[in-house]
Amino acid sequence: MSINRRHFNQLLLLGGAGLVFGGIPSWAGAAETPVSGGTLNWAYYPDPTALIAINTSSGTGQAIGPKINEGLLDFDYDLNPTPFLATSWSVSDDGLRYSFALRKGVKWHDGKDFTSEDVKFTIFRLKEAHPRGRITFQNVTSVETPDPLTAIIVLSKPAPYLISALGSSESPIVPKHVYETFKPTEQPTLAQTIGTGPFILKEWVPGSHLIFDRNPDYWDAPKPYLDRVVLRVILDPAARAAALETGEIDIGANPVPLSDVERLKANSNLVVDTTTYAYSGPQQQLFFNYENEILTKKDVRLAIAHAIDLQKLVDIALFGYGQVSPSPISTALPKWYDPSIKAREPDPKLANKLLDDAGYPRGANGTRFKLRLAYNPFLQTSYADFIKQSLAAVGIDAEILQLDLATFLKTVYTDRTWDLVIESLSNTFDPTLGVQRAYWSKNFKIGLVFSNASHYSNPEVDAVLEAAATEPDEAKRRQLWYKFQHIVHDDVVSVDLVAAGAQIVANKRVKNFAPGAQGINNSFGQIWLSPNA
């Protein structure tokens, strides 16, 4: 049987996406004895503005924070929970009480004891300030602390996804005695950035680097194996590729232009990991700003959808590293994705007619109207270039806003000075956490990043989302998510684009860099450097 390029690319992604529900990444070989010592050089972009994912779902917080602040649980590749700050746990038969036995002898980096009061404070801080935490913990009524090493989360309604949300990159536990001294919307200063994790943040020079030193009092001795981690901010993708090839840098996530991936795969000194880890749920979307009168018209939104050829977006802009994902729920979550949702056919003729009928004829210069197109700087610029060209073909002038991460977040979620935005709102491991935030009317709040950017409001959608969030029966919950997908797709609330493949590139001397479901967004406590590679 012959396999064409399109089929090959789909199989390539599906091979990785299959690991959402189980398996071990291909780079993981036979177990070796870890060696202690050495410095790991980590290439990173964009320039981080938030380090701890206590009030942000930004990729910077998810990637950097777990080195400092840990969650109650960790997860294997199949998303099975394993002990971390909690050593054991139980759930009541009615699903309303989650009891955790906390690890003894754990210290914060400043020497104070970690206790159940820290867990209680953190859960309510996440509920108030975190874009997904507002949903994850929405039904938490109290956190009981009968003793320093017992925490009991009490709910008013079931939360079938709650256990899976307790990883370090999603729900990091923070020290109450530090975080209660500043507002929920604020991030800690360098001196306040303390945790229980394997590394202590020693230096942060914005635009340049972060330095993490080994925590000598870490509870899980002899970890961490590394003496130091140096995060180097390298904004130029060509420079990141060169640094990896020369050995100046040891590891990076999505570090190089997609056009360079095949070349790096051929480098005998490097490992290129294309696994889709269970915590990621990749999904890239085009959202409309409903505060722009033009975009409140369904025919305009539908025209934009028909103007974009999603398969060409994958093949051309992403070099095949992705899969068309036409529903609000990513194809990487087959348990919840409704396969009856199909991508709209690219049809410039129909798009032109819809725009004419909506009352926006072409002007003398061939342009109907102008829209400001923002894009998440974590994404390749090729997304914006491709969509700009697609819209130009039907008479829409899309002005690309070139923004760094901090400016992007302010422009989209605070100032709201945009019309279209290409986002990368991960579905995570469950749609209640990753999807609901973008469509739930109660999650629109000025300044709340990675939330309901469109300012979309639909009482029927709200009701379905809220029911799905508390339905303990998996089959019934799936039907609710199917209903949600049809409503949103039929109303063209967003143009759901692709589930983009991800790449971790590492020097072969870097061992055990992604030991579980969180991928590279783990603590780095298990990473070690082989002297023989």
UniProtKB/TrEMBL annotation:
UniProt record similarity statement: Belongs to the bacterial solute-binding protein 5 family.
UniProt main location, coarse: periplasm
Solute-binding protein family domain segment(s): 81-442
Protein name: ABC transporter substrate-binding protein
Domain of life: Bacteria
SUPFAM superfamilies registered for this protein in UniProt: Periplasmic binding protein-like II
Keyword hit for DNA damage: no
One Pfam family linked to the record: SBP_bac_5
Species assigned in the record: Rhizobium lusitanum
GO cellular component, one term: ATP-binding cassette (ABC) transporter complex
BP terms from Gene Ontology: peptide transport
Keywords: Signal
Molecular function per GO: peptide transmembrane transporter activity
Location within or outside the cell: Periplasm
